[in-house]
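ESCALATION

Customer reports they have been waiting on this structure for their group meeting. Please prioritize. Original submission:
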Amino acid sequence: MRIVLVRHGEAEPSRGEDSVRALTEAGKAQAVQSAAWLRRQIGDVGTGVKLVASPYLRAQQTAAAFSAALELPVVTVEAITPDTDPRRALESLDSHAQGVEWLVVVSHMPLVAALASWLSEGRVGAGQGFGLAEVRMLEADVPGPGVASLRDRFIPGVSG
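Update from on-call: job pushed to the front of the queue and completed.
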C-alpha cells in the first residue's frame, strides 16, 4: 500500500487559535500543485484511494484541493493534529487504511515528519521536516513502525 503524507500549504500568521488559521493565496496554489502531482502519480483513482485530513482549517483547505483533483471526499480524523503522538495517529489511521491501496493523509508539522520517521525508521522523534504542501509517498505492506520506504516526494516550487 502507499501511504501519502501531506503537509498543509502556507498558512496565515498565528493570531490566536491555531486550529482556525487559514491558507494564504500562495498556500492554496501550493496545495493545487501538490494535488495535481499526486493525481499524476496515482492515475485512475477508482475505489482504492482514501483521503483523510486533520480537522484544522488549513489542513481541510489543503485537503479540498486534493479532493477536487482526486474526485474523493475528505474524511476528517480528529487524532491527526500537529502535536499528536505518531503512534496514536497511526492507530487512528489504521481503520482508514483497511482495504485501500493509497491512504492520503493531510496534516501538519511536526506530526507528518514524526509519522514518516515512525513508519520508515521505527523511531519516535522529530524526523526530517516537511516543506509547505510537501507530499511524501511511502510504501509498506501494512502501516507499522519501521516497515515503510520512501518512494517519491514533491515540494511545490522545488520539485520538477
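Sent to customer with the following note: The beta strands are 2-7, 49-53, 74-76, 102-107, 135-139, 149-154.
Escalation resolved.
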